[in-house]
Design a protein that fits this description.
18 helices, six-stranded antiparallel beta sheet, globular, 25 strands, alpha/beta, five-stranded mixed beta sheet, about 550 residues
C-alpha cells in the first residue's frame, strides 16, 4: 500500500492508496476522493489508479500540470519516495506511514489531522485534534499499529504500553449497536465480526486512565478496528460496486441514482429505466446485473417492438419436443435466462399482445412452450428500458395500465447529459483520454473547442458525444489540437426548435393524439371512447386531417 503525504500550512494530509480501491481523484473540488483546496490545484487535478498491480498517476488536463520528480507528466508510474507537485502542494509517495501519521484521510478511512486543537471527537466524519506535546505518545502507538505483528499481538502490546486492563469496542448507528470486543475480550481473544460499516465508534476502557492516554487509546483502537473490519469490508464489497458509478458520470445526480440502484441490486423486483436516447440506459442495466447476486448467470437483451408471430414466440418461449412431425424442440430466451436477467429494450414500443404475455410470466413465474402443456417454472429478473414517457403511453392506450404498474417495481430515470454539466465535462475529457491511450497520442482540446462542447445541448447524449469527439480527434491528429472547426455540432442557439403559430401547434398535437388513439385501439368505437369525444366530432377531425382509416384497418 502506498501513502501520499502532503504538508500545507502546518497541516499534514495523508492519502492512502488501497489496492481494493479502483482509482482516486485528487483535486480542489469537495467531492474528490483526495480533497486539497489550495492554490493552483485544479478542481479535478489528477487520478491515481492501479495498472497490472502497480500504482500510476495521470494528469486530468489540470491548469498547472502534474509534476513527478520535477518533470511534467501526462501519465507515469509511482515509486516509493517519488515527489509529486500539484499546483502549490507537494506530495511524497511513501510505502508505509511515518510516525507522525495518526490515520489516513480519504474515502477508505477516518479523517484526522495532526494540529493543535481541542477535545477528541468520536464521529467518523470529524477530525481528531492532537496536541503537539502528545506526539511522542502517538509515535509509539503508530509504531505498534503499523508493525508486522498480528491483530491480537498489537492489542496486547498497546495495552501493556498504556496500562489498560480490559476494554470494549462497539460501533453505534442510532439505536443499533454492534460489539467488536466484549469485556474480557483480551483474555478470551474473542472478536465479533460485523456485516456492515456503522458510522460511530464507542470505546470503553477499564480502568479509567489519564486523559491524554485515553485520547491516544481511542484513536489507536478506532484505527485498528477499521483496519481489521471496516477497511477490509469496504474495499471488497463497497468501493468496487457502490462507489464506482463513473460509467454513468460523476455528478451528484448520478451518485444518488447509483445508490438507489445499488439498494435493489439483489431484489427480484422488475426495474424500469427511462431516459432519452443515448443516456446510458443499457449500461446501467448491465452494471446492476454485474453487481447483483445473479452476476454469474445469463444477461440477455431482447427487443419486443414487433408484433408476435410464430418465429418470435418460438424465440421467446421455445418449442415443445415432438410437438409436430419434423419440428425439433427448442429452448427459448426465458429458459436460457433462468436464474439470470432479461433486459427488454424499448418497452414503450411493445405491442399489447406481448405486454399481456409477459405480464402473465412476470406474475406467475412460469410459462408454456409452444405446443407444451406443462408449465415451466423460471426465476428471472426483468429490467426494462425506454425513451418514451410511459405515463403518456398509458393515457393514449399504447401501454396496458396493469402491465405498466407491474414493470415499474423500481423506476430509475436518467436525466439528459445537457442537464449534467459536470458529467459532460467529465466524459468529454475521458473519451479523449481513452482515444489518446488507444492511438498513443497526446491530443488536447483548444479552449474554444472545449467551450463549444460544454455549451451544446447534445440531443443524442453520450452516444452522440462519443462519435463527435472521435471524428474531431482523427481530424486533429496532424496538429495535436482539436480545434473548434473540427466539431460539426451547432451552437445551442442554432438548434432551438422553430416557433410555429399557436393554432398550427395545437392542430399538430391534435392530429398526433388522434393517430395514436386509432393505432392502439381494437376498433374505432374504442378509440372514440378513449378520446372522450362525440362520434360526429371524431369523424369531423378525421376528415379535417385527411386520416385514412382504411390503412389502419388493413394493418389490424
Amino acid at each position: 500500500m502506498y501513502v501520499l503525504k502532503a504538508k500545507v500550512e502546518e497541516k499534514i494530509f495523508w492519502f492512502p492508496l488501497y489496492e481494493g480501491g479502483k482509482s482516486y481523484i485528487l483535486g480542489s473540488k469537495e467531492t474528490c476522493d483526495f480533497h486539497l483546496p489550495f492554490k493552483g490545484v485544479s478542481r479535478r487535478h489528477c487520478e491515481f489508479f492501479l495498472k497490472k498491480g502497480e500504482w500510476w498517476v495521470k494528469d486530468l488536463n489540470s491548469t498547472n500540470g502534474t509534476y513527478l520528480n520535477g518533470e511534467i507528466i501526462k501519465e507515469a508510474k509511482l515509486k516509493e519516495k517519488s515527489s509529486l507537485i500539484c499546483g502549490t502542494v507537494k506530495l511524497i509517495v511513501l510505502e508505509s506511514p511515518t510516525s507522525d501519521w495518526v490515520t489516513p484521510e480519504g474515502k477508505n478511512g477516518l479523517s484526522f489531522s495532526a494540529k493543535e486543537g481541542s477535545e477528541l471527537k468520536k464521529r467518523k466524519t470529524d477530525e481528531f485534534h492532537i496536541n503537539k506535546k502528545d506526539h511522542s505518545l502517538y509515535e509509539k502507538a503508530c509504531e505498534i499499529l503499523f508493525s508486522d505483528e498480528d491483530f491480537y499481538k498489537k492489542i496486547e502490546k498497546f495495552c501493556n504500553f498504556i496500562k489498560i486492563e480490559d476494554l470494549e469496542i462497539s460501533y453505534r448507528n442510532g439505536e443499533d449497536e454492534a460489539l467488536i470486543f466484549k469485556k474480557n475480550a483480551l483474555r478470551k481473544k474473542e472478536l465479533i465480526s460485523l456485516d456492515k460499516i456503522i458510522p460511530e465508534i464507542e470505546i470503553k476502557i477499564f480502568p479509567e486512565i489519564e486523559e491524554e492516554f485515553k485520547k491516544c487509546a481511542t484513536v489507536f483502537f478506532t484505527i485498528l478496528s477499521h483496519m481489521k473490519l471496516g477497511m477490509k469490508f469496504f474495499n471488497k464489497n463497497i468501493e468496487k460496486e457502490k462507489l464506482d458509478y463513473s460509467f454513468l458520470g460523476v455528478s451528484e445526480f448520478i451518485k444518488e441514482l447509483w445508490e438507489k440502484a445499488y439498494l435493489y441490486k439483489d431484489s427480484d423486483l422488475p426495474i424500469l429505466i427511462t431516459g432519452e436516447t443515448g443516456v446510458g440506459k443499457e449500461f446501467l442495466a448491465k452494471e446492476i446485473h454485474n453487481i447483483s447476486n445473479r452476476a454469474d448467470k445469463p444477461f440477455i437483451p431482447i427487443n419486443f417492438s414487433e408484433k408476435p408471430d410464430t418465429l418470435k414466440e418460438a424465440e421467446i418461449f421455445g418449442i415443445e419436443e415432438k410437438v409436430a412431425t419434423g419440428v425439433k424442440g427448442q429452448i427459448g430466451v426465458l429458459e436460457q435466462a433462468n436464474n439470470g436477467c432479461i433486459l427488454i429494450d424499448e418497452v414503450g414500443d411493445m405491442p399489447k399482445e406481448w405486454q399481456l404475455m409477459l405480464l402473465r410470466v412476470i406474475e406467475n413465474n412460469y410459462f408454456y412452450k409452444i405446443g407444451g402443456k406443462k408449465p415451466i417454472p423460471i426465476n428471472v429478473r426483468f429490467i426494462f428500458t425506454t425513451n418514451k414517457d410511459m405515463d403518456a403511453q398509458v393515457k393514449i392506450g399504447a401501454i396496458r395500465e396493469d402491465f405498466y404498474y407491474r414493470i415499474k417495481g423500481v423506476h430509475l430515470h436518467i436525466i439528459p447529459l445537457r442537464e449534467r454539466k459536470e458529467d459532460l465535462e467529465y466524459f468529454a475529457q475521458k473519451i479523449l483520454d481513452e482515444l489518446n491511450l488507444k492511438y498513443n497520442t497526446q491530443i488536447v482540446y483548444s479552449y474554444s473547442a472545449f467551450e463549444k462542447i460544454l455549451n451544446y445541448c447534445w440531443p443524442g447524449n453520450l452516444r452522440q458525444l462519443k462519435l463527435e469527439i472521435e471524428k474531431a480527434f482523427h481530424m486533429a491528429k496532424n496538429i495535436g489540437i482539436i480545434q473548434e472547426k473540427f466539431l460539426t455540432i451547432g451552437e445551442i442557439e442554432t438548434i432551438k426548435p422553430s416557433i410555429i403559430p399557436f393554432k398550427d401547434a395545437i392542430e399538430n398535437k391534435e392530429k398526433e393524439v388522434l393517430l395514436n388513439a386509432i393505432k392502439f385501439s381494437k376498433n374505432i368505437s374504442e378509440a372514440i371512447e378513449k378520446l372522450k369525444i362525440p362520434r360526429t366530432t371524431f369523424y369531423q377531425k378525421i376528415k379535417k386531417y385527411k386520416i385514412d382509416l382504411k390503412k389502419f384497418k388493413e394493418k389490424k
